[in-house]
Amino acid sequence: MPASDQGVAKSKDRYHLVPRVLCFVRHGEDVLLLKGAPTKRIWPNRYNGLGGHVERREGAAAAARREIREEAGLEVCNLRLRGVITIDTGEAAGIGLYVFTAEALSRETMPSVEGKLEWVPITRATELDLVEDLFTLLPRVLAQPDGAPPFSATYHYDEQDRLVITFDDA
Fold first, then answer.
1. Per-residue pLDDT reduced to its tens digit, 72-83
2. What pTM, to 2 d.p., does this model score?
3. Which domain holds residue 107?
């Protein structure tokens, strides 16, 4: 089907999603987390996975590999899509978040302007000052068996601006 038949031009008043990726890289029993730089606009000094925007003409898996290389200097194997989250930001456009896991080929990372990279024991990850959704998301993602299908979830904010997470299988 040609691009002109995709119907995007006629959907300017519809809800749109900005595609992003979030990656949790493992090495043995550790997961690589990024403590956001204190100067970051969003999530300064809080721990998160690696990730960012999906660029034009880039698939989600390619974006995940690129973000891991850019933010940590790592090459990975066993990149797996673990879930897709639709985030309602309350604006005309939300976020379509593709969540991945991968295995690092080494533990040697490069410095990142995004923040400080830390290998953290998986069993201790939720003891850190995580980005708010990771207290729920990280244990679920890291416990997913390799053959499990990706999950689907939505995030939105309630009247008190608190995050509400709903997994479609719940």
1. 999 999 999 999
2. 0.93
3. 28-167
